[in-house]
Amino acid sequence: MSAVAIKGWCPGALRPMPSGDGLVVRIRPRGGRLDAAQAAGIADLAGRYGNGLIDLTSRANLQIRGVTDQSFPPLSDGLALLGLLDPDERTEARRNILVTPFWADGDDTAPLAAELELGLANFPFDLPTKFGFAIDDGRERVLAGNSADIRIERDRDGKLLVRADGARRGRSVTRSEAVQVALALAEWFVASDGDNGERKRMAASLAAGTHQPKSLQGDAEPAPQAADPVPGLCALGAIVGVAFGQLPYRTLSHLAASAQALRVTPWRMLLAEGLREMPRDADLITRADDPALRVVACSGAPRCGEAFADTRALASRLAPLIPQDARLHVSGCGKGCAHAGPADITLVATREGFELIRGGSTRDAPAMRGLTAAGLIADPAALAGGR
Length: 387
Fold this sequence. Notes:
Number of helices: 9
Distance between the termini: 23 Å
Mean pLDDT: 92
Strand content: 15-25%
Structural class: alpha+beta
Radius of gyration: 21 Å
Low-confidence stretches: 1-6, 194-198
Largest sheet: 5 strands, antiparallel
């Protein structure tokens, strides 16, 4: 596989990252929610100071693309007025919290997220850059397939537990203990394995043989995992998808004007609170059977300087050819930024063409090498091994 530059950090609103189409400015909504004014403000800022494109990331964040060195200061000022900036880069980088979008007013989710944010702001140690937390405290877990190192969940009886990612069971906790135990688990990780070579994630550390202290272990079985959400109406409003996780600023502006608030999800979808019918916008996915839901693709060339191919052009052509129960991941390089986990079919662009991995991720050994975009489109049976 061709070598790529691993930056080792993620962009932020205070520390943008250079890309092929300019600076990328990442916004981390507190509690995974934007009120209507914040959503409309982000759309306006993206149109005025970026290239008008907004990404939805797998960490339930938003990214304004195409920002320049000259436009970044007024963009930053605008985000500050919207209440979307942290006091400093260190606080921002630690606030890596994924929150279930299906919480209701009065439940534990929002208070847990706010308490965890405060605890991380005052955390006495540095965590690895991509180290994250998930608050997945519904009766069914919806974030089990999403990246997190420490999880606050429910057990099968509806009680709270704290679980290290990679461990089958977690420790039962009361509401007042949950955040304290989660932070204690993070502190133990830093002391035991946080700086050990490549093992900067909890699951990798446990798989390598690191043992949790008995005080942080438990035998509570997590609640069942829910089916993956799809576009459609729900009790809270309307869930809409975004092809490849990127939408024009005008689409976000229209959605903000009609919803009470927007909840950002890790599935490249938005939950528009209060809507009782699906919005009609060509840039939104509103049907559960839309072929675009079967594919994940990163920004690709020329938008990303590390990418070896236009991933989204290929993904658009292949999407209708993928079985409804399968998932295709097209990655512009070996980093797999858009999807860290396995997929039924993974295509990785290299200087020598595409590599094809079946049932794995970008880190796994390919079954085929040197494939071309034209060849894959002409012979889609090769994707499933039908050649």
